[in-house]
Amino acid sequence: MASQSSAVIFDMDGVLLDSEPLHYEAVRQALAEQGVDFPFDDYARYLGTTLTSTWDELCERYPITMTLEQFEARYNADVLKQYQAGAPLIRGARELVEQLREAGVPIAVASSSHRLWVNAALRGAGLSRYFDQTTAGDEVSMGKPSPEIYLKAAKKLGIDPARCIAIEDAPAGVESANAAGMKVVLVRSELTQDLNLTSDWQVNDLTEFKLTWLSEPSADLVGAA
Question: Higher confidence at residue 88 or residue 53?
Fold first, then answer.
């Protein structure tokens, strides 16, 4: 039976921010300049893959003259600009972080995105002032599903990982938080609804997060199937 929790650590994209559309738009615009029509259904097949593997396959499918280096620079700049303008929030995100702050609960972000994006995204969405600590993907040697990023986030807070609740929406993130010994809240999505992911609690959005979870032992682990 797990100990009671004293901190909450959020993933960023898909948990706090509805950012997938802006990532898609950055890719769509780059391909449009190459004369390629790229609907979202085509983009969705590449979710969770690396930028390099995605670009390699796109170059095989379409007559693209842009190099990977050119695309990556363009993509990074476009996503950064959109983060700075303010990515839309996931339903309940602002309300939850405000409730946790008012309750005196330490909160942090553990995002696979690099530091420049994390800072810009949280600032653009008006969330940066709420968090005690943030940890970015370029601060760890191994990304999710390695537990390193969650262990580092807990260390920054000065709190035992076993006393943290992680909020995640992606398989690699859920695995990372579980491996770090944290309790896990899974935010369900169309991409994970058919996957059997191990979590302590599941929600459709952050309005369903219960503050009482912080003061009770974790429930029996449940799957997302």
Answer: 88
Question: ∠ CA 122-180-10 to the nearest 5 degrees?
Answer: 20
Active-site residue (options: 11, 78, 169, 200): 11
**Residue 3 pLDDT grade (very low, low, confident, very high; cuts 50, 70, 90):** low
Lowest-confidence range among 3-12, 144-153, 205-214? Answer: 3-12
At a CB cut-off of 8 Å and minimum separation 6, what does 107 contact?
7, 8, 9, 10, 97, 100, 101, 130, 131, 132
| Alpha carbons 187 and 10: distance in angstroms, whole number | 11
Verify whether residue 132 is a known catalytic residue: no
| pLDDT at 224 (0 to 100) | 45
Which residues have C-beta within 8 Å of that of residue 41, sequence separation ≥ 6? Answer: none
What is the number of residues in the chain?
225
pLDDT of residue 147: 97
